[in-house]
Structure formats: structure tokens, C-alpha cells
Amino acid sequence: MRRFFGKVRVRAAAGASLVVAVALVAAGTALLLVLKSNLVGQADLQAENAAREVATQIATGKPYEKLDLPDGDDLPVVVLAEDGRVLAAGDDVRAVDGKAVTERHPPTARQPDGAGSGDDDDDREIKPGEVDDEARHSGGTATVGHRTADYRFATVEAKDTQGDKAVVRAGAPLAAEREAVGSVRTAMLIGLPCLLLVVAGVTWLVTRRALRPVEGIRREMAAITASTDLSRRVPEPGSRDEIDRLARTTNETLGALQESVERQRRFVADASHELRSPIASLRTQLEVGVAHPELLDAEGAVEDAVRLQNLAADLLLLARLDAGERPADTRIDLAALVREEVSQRVGDRIAVEVGELAGVEVAGSRSQLGRVLGNLLDNAQRHAAGAVRAGVVRDGRWAVLRVEDDGPGVPPEERERIFERFVRLDDARSRDDGGAGLGLAIARDVAERHGGTLTVRDGSVFALRLPAA
Q1: Are residues 82 and 143 in the same domain?
Q2: DSSP H or E stretch at residue 93
């Protein structure tokens, strides 16, 4: 069991670490993408601002050779004509996207009728002295001095006061973006394993603490199994969680098991005691008959044998009921059952009167319900002064079988005890006059198996309530 709990802790720690790792990887990836997107956006904005500043100077008519260009190392700028000639470039800018920009060509004289304007039908129409509102962004490389690096470029078009179009391309370095992304990635690669170790350790400790009461329950259950002492109980942590409910349920189960075992022991002891009397009596009569045949009491021997047979049948039925045997699902007319049972009791000491017999059917075992009725009638005849009555009525969705007698009745404090096994209120009376104390116990067990109840009220009125079919 300890090995099992160890595996549980390992699985819990591994599972928590895996979940956290997946979540952190997903969150880290998203963070890197967002960070990279924001830094690239900032570079685009920086490059566009630089391009528009130069384009604005061109639109105001400032000569190309006098343009105020940003520092080439931070913001490389190149101004191109429509035919690709380099009109101006920042200091130390040697190449953009692998194309040399070292040669500067001043603009040529305008040709009449706009022949040199380079305007195509597909180009956006920009008037002289204006800057295009749209800017194009792209990635590329630039060589400034002797160093080549990656940049984000913004391209803006403008027309000078003469109507000549110029294309301004300005770049913003990506070194800061890459450095920031690299730093975050490195921090994540270092911090993720450390965080997973912390999560695994905390999960291990929390799981160990949470399972500690379960280990106490396991040890106590093992001790109970070894000692067979069902009076012991497992410790209840009192934490009002699942483990506390498990402990309470375990104790309830142990209590029910203890009660069942004690009941079984009492049942075996009482059954042995009840069987001893008829067996001893029968043996004595047979021994007397062997030694003195003329003294053999054959009728008494037969009565003892019948009592022994009935007791064995009762014990067998109780064993079947305790085993959880389900009754048959047969529709039974209780009125017909009463009439049949009463018709077989013609020679009894006290005749059974038939009261109201409502036509109502129930579902169940005919033999078991007949046994209940027989036991109730036997009990009533045994205690009645001179009258026994049986009847059937309907009470809503219930069928009620009533058996009553005019005897002294059952004291209120004993009305539940009489349904216990081997219980006789008058222990001094002869067993020949009474039963073994199993009839009412069998009757209540059968009633409960059929979804009903058996109670006694008003002294000597027994009511069997069963759901009507």
C-alpha cells in the first residue's frame, strides 16, 4: 500500500509538472510572439517617422544634396528616383538589400509635358509638394560602414515642388528586438526547469500531506484485519473533505459489519439452542422406545420431528433472505390468499374470522407472502382469548393486510423487540405451546423484501402494508 501511495504521489507530481510545463510553453510562446510583434511594430513606426521626415523635406522643395538625413548607423536612409537612381543617402550607408548606394546622381531637368515624371496609370496620384499617406513596410539588410545588419524598412513616396517623384526608404535596426526576445527566451529556458522542480516538489509535499490520513486509515484497516476486532474504528481527520467522508463511511461500514457478525453469531447460538431441545427430546423418546417398546410415545416423537422440520425450514428461509434473495414478480390477490389460508385452518383451537376483503393485488412471491400470513395467524391464535380476525383493505396506493386478536396485546415498549429473531416475550412458557421466536422476524424480513412494512399497533393488531400492483 505504501508503494501504491508512492506511485500516487509520483503520478500527481508528474501530472502537475506536465500541465504546468505545457501551460508555460504555450504562454511563453505567446509572450515571445507578442513581444516580437510589438518590437517590430515599434521599429516600423520609427522607420516610417524617419522616412516621412525626409519625404516632407523633399515635398517642401529642399535640394537633395542639402537634405537633413538621420545618422546612418541608427537609421539608414536612401532616396531613390523612379528609375532607381540614388538621389541621396545617409552617411556611411554603403548598401541596402545588397545594392550599392555609393553613387549619387542629381535629378535631370524635367522634360516637357511630364515625360520625365515617371507617373504610370497604376501609380497613386500625388500632387507636387505632397507626401503619400501610405507607407510600405518590409524587412531587409543594410550595410553601414563595414557592418551589415537586419533592419525594418519603411518606404514613403513624395513629389518635390517641380513634380518629380522621389522614393524615401528608411530603416530601423532590429538588434534591440532580437536582444530583447533572446533575453526573454533565455530567462524562460532557465526559469522553466526551476519552476517545474518547484511545482513537482510542492505537489509531492501537498499530496503526501493529503494522503497521510489515508495511510492512517490503511494501517488501522490492516490492524483490524489482523486482529479480527471489528469494534475498532479508523481515525477520522475531521477535515470535512473527501478523505474525512471516506473515514466516516469506512467506520459506518465497520459498524454495519460488526452488527452483522454479532447478529450472525447470536443467530447461530440461538439456532443451536433451539435445535438442541427437539433433538434431545426426540433422542430420549427413541432410546426409551428401543429399550421399552411399550413405552414409546410415537405421537410425541412425530411432534418433535415436525417442530424440528419447521425450525429447519425457518432457518433456511432466513438464510435465503439474508443472502439477498429477490422475491418473484407475480401478481397475487391478497383476498384470495386470505380465503385459501383460512380454509386450511378448520380444526384450529380458535377459528379465524374473515373481515373485509378488498380486491387488491400485489407483486411478489406467493409462497413467502403465504408464509407471512400463516405466521401472523399462528401468532394471533397463540395469544387470542377467543377471536382472531383477518382482512384486506386498500389505503391509497397501499394494500393493507390486517390480522388482529382479542388477546392481551403487545406492550408499547416491546412492539419492536418482538420482530427480533428468537425473541419470546414470555420466556417461561413452554416451547410446545409457542414457536422458536422466528415467525414475526421472518414476516418482517419478507415484508421489507417486498417493499412494504409490518407493524403492530393498538395492542394486538398486526398490519402488513404492501405497494399495490
Answers
A1: yes
A2: strand 93-96
Domain extent at residue 267: 242-309
Half-sphere exposure of 384 (CA within 13 A, CB side): 22
Q: How far apart are the first and last CA of the chain?
A: 50
Give which of 133, 118, 135, 121 is closest to 48, Cα–Cα.
135
> pLDDT-derived band of residue 430, with 50, 70 and 90 as boundaries?
very low
- CA triple 418-419-422, angle to 5 deg: 75
Task: Verify that 168 and 57 share a domain, yes or no.
Answer: yes
- Please check whether residues 69 and 212 belong to one and the same domain: yes
Cβ atoms within 10 Å, residue 404: 24
149 with 254, same domain: the answer is: no
- The grid coordinates of residue 363 equal 407483486
Residues whose CB falls within 8 Å of the CB of residue 156, separated by 6 or more in sequence, listed in order: 48, 51, 52, 55, 131, 132, 135, 167, 168, 170
Using the 3D structure, point to which of 200, 229, 258 is the last residue of a domain: 229
Judge whether residue 301 has pLDDT over 50: yes
| 317 in a structural domain | no
Q: What is the CATH number of the domain that holds 423?
A: 3.30.565.10
Give the whole-angstrom CA distance, residue 345 versus residue 384.
Answer: 15
Q: What is the pLDDT of residues 205-228, one digit of tens each?
A: 888 787 788 888 888 888 888 888
Identity of the amino acid at 386:
G
Task: Give yes or no: residues 35 and 153 share one domain.
Answer: yes
The H or E element containing residue 151 is strand 147-159
pLDDT score of 347 = 80
Burial label for 85, CB within 10 Å (0-12, 13-18, 19+), is middle
Residues 44 and 179 occupy one common structural domain: yes
| CA distances (Å), origin 167, targets 79, 103, 238 | 6, 16, 79
